[in-house]
Design a protein that fits this description.
By secondary structure, the chain is α/β, with parallel strands linked by helices. The protein is built from 26 helices and 15 strands. It has three domains: 327 residues, no CATH class; 69 residues, no CATH class; 87 residues, no CATH class. A five-stranded parallel beta sheet has the order 6-3-2-10-11, sandwiched between helices. Strand 13 and strand 14 form a beta hairpin. Helix 12 runs antiparallel to helix 15. The longest helix is centred in the last third of the chain and has 30 residues. The chain is elongated and about 95 Å long. The two termini are 21 Å apart. The relative contact order is 0.16.
Length: 526
């Protein structure tokens, strides 16, 4: 069962994203192409990269995906990518522990669905590619997983690593990582052994290949192609040379679009004076930003360099025939700064397409909302207060009785105020404390009475209270906090495949490629 949710409810802190999916405020003009120019974009993209780079890149992709024991469909897709007519759809993310938050699943689902739709529309192979951002060194982003326990409390399991500051691609499966994995498996049991096997590492894995293997297994039937930056880094020497020698021009282009964003009232996601450069990976594995473009670097050894967050998509699109980038709300905002860079490199900027989103809800919770007449949109607002919902559900007669009792109690205590003050002015404070305590006790009694009243109606107050951490944990959308692992453990993987197969377009501003689904789940049984 699937419904759709207005994205304005969940992404209110992403104004550029909301205006872009609505086609408002000149936001589409920050990008070279739109869906109306898809055929022209495809023709220009098919000529880039060169056939030699395309062939060498496919060799590297094939070798890497074979290490992952990729499906035969993935292997065929890589072979299709050698064809000069073939294109791809790319999205990327860091290697979050055990797959990271739910939105990573949604991003990959969007990549797969978009590639299939564009392939049908253009009548050429368009292949799905997931870029595992293993160059990143933000360890705090990837070292944990979060889920709700049976009581509805938010839980976290994390691990530490002495290699802080190094790219995640250097992280082995340490004892700390294994211990965290064992603990998660103990606390989040799987209902299906086949699904559990998706997440098991092999003896040969390091941290990143383990996580690439998870996605390769989970999306094997769709031929998803996995790639890490290190796989293609040896082909990037020309790009790195230009990035190093033209840094001032790159930053000037970034500053131009940053200024346009500010004039339209949008926040600038990245500082143009500190972006658009390279990192050097030292012998100790630490990435350090190259701040002086006059430094003579050993560019023949391209494996010692990596692109920063701004240059990474331009690098990827110089090495792969990218037709569309699948982007989250924050990514879309900083991709809006990139048009001058694509024009400088003479690379057609791919379509910027927002990833789909979703909110998962167990059927029992969904039925509870329906029985109470509560709209799901109400529960997704940051200001949603379950306690107020509980009071609203109480019988009018019970609420009136407590309201009258509270008024009588306060009226009964009021005559004591003046005589107490005359005896001792300090007793006024004690009188007020007594009134407050009496109100508190009446409130506690009312809460207990409401619970009993709702229990007679078959409604659990605890289940109502648990809606908040389930649907809006840590005051953020569910997809950004809760792990995909925990939902797959309890509900299996079929809901993911149905999300890909049966998605319907949710139209905003005449566009048909963004939606936020409400997906109702039933527990999986082996």
């Amino acid at each position: 069962m699937t419904q759709f949710i207005d994205p304005r409810i969940l992404y209110s802190q992403s104004p550029f994203f909301l205006d872009y999916i609505d086609g408002k405020n000149s936001t589409p003009e920050f990008f070279q192409h739109s869906a109306t120019s898809i055929h022209r974009l495809a023709e220009t993209r098919q000529a880039i990269p060169s056939q030699q780079t395309r062939s060498e890149g496919c060799d590297a992709l094939l070798e890497y995906n074979q290490v992952l024991n990729a499906s035969s469909r993935t292997t065929r897709n890589i072979e299709h990518l050698r064809d000069s007519k073939a294109l791809c759809v790319i999205g990327g993310q860091q290697a979050g522990f055990l797959g990271g938050p739910l939105f990573v699943i949604y991003k990959i689902a969007s990549i797969i669905r978009t590639a299939a739709r564009l392939s049908d529309r253009l009548d050429v192979p368009v292949l799905p590619v997931f870029w595992l951002a293993s160059e990143d060194h933000d360890f705090a982003e990837i070292n944990h997983t979060r889920w709700l326990d049976d009581s509805g409390a938010l839980r976290t399991i994390s691990f530490d690593w002495e290699g802080h500051g190094q790219p995640i691609e250097h992280l082995p499966i340490t004892e700390a990582v294994r211990d965290a994995f064992v603990e998660v498996r103990q606390k989040i049991p799987f209902s299906n052994a086949i699904d559990a096997a998706i997440f098991s590492p092999t003896d040969e894995d390091i941290y990143c290949t383990w996580h690439a293997r998870i996605w390769s297994r989970l999306f094997a039937d769709y031929g998803l192609i996995l790639v890490e930056p290190r796989v293609l880094r040896s082909l990037a020497e020309p790009f790195f040379r230009r990035a190093l020698t033209e840094r001032r021009e790159i930053q000037a282009g970034l500053a131009l679009n940053a200024s346009r964003l500010m004039k339209l009232g949008y926040p600038v996601p990245l500082d143009p004076s500190r972006s658009g450069g390279l990192f050097e990976i030292g012998e100790d594995g630490i990435r350090q930003r190259i701040d002086d473009s006059s430094i003579k670097m050993d560019l023949q050894n391209s494996v010692q360099f990596s692109a920063d967050a701004i240059l990474r998509p331009v690098l990827a699109d110089s090495l792969l025939p990218t037709l569309a980038n699948i982007l989250g709300p924050s990514e879309l905002a900083y991709h809006a700064m990139l048009r001058p860079l694509y024009e400088r490199w003479d690379i057609p900027q791919p379509l910027a397409l927002p990833r789909q989103g979703a909110t998962l809800i167990p059927k029992a919770s969904f039925d509870l909302l329906n029985s109470m007449g509560i709209e799901i949109s109400e529960t997704l607002h940051p200001g949603f207060k379950p306690a107020e919902v509980v009071k609203r559900l109480a019988s009018e007669e019970l609420s009136l009785e407590f309201s009258e009792a509270r008024a009588r109690m306060e009226k009964a205590l009021l005559p004591l105020k003046d005589p107490l003050i005359q005896l001792d002015p300090g007793l006024e404070t004690r009188w007020r404390q007594t009134v407050d305590q009496a109100r508190h006790q009446v409130q506690r009694l009312e809460d207990r009475a409401i619970r009993a009243d709702l229990a007679r109606q078959g409604i659990s107050v605890k289940n109502i209270q648990n809606l908040k951490p389930l649907l809006f944990p840590m005051e953020k959308p569910q997809e950004r906090i809760l792990s995909a692992f925990s939902f797959i453990a309890k509900y299996g993987v079929e809901w993911i495949h149905e999300m890909i197969a049966h998605s319907e377009p949710f139209r905003f501003g005449g566009r048909d490629w963004f939606e936020h689904q409400l997906i109702v789940l039933e527990e999986s049984h082996e």
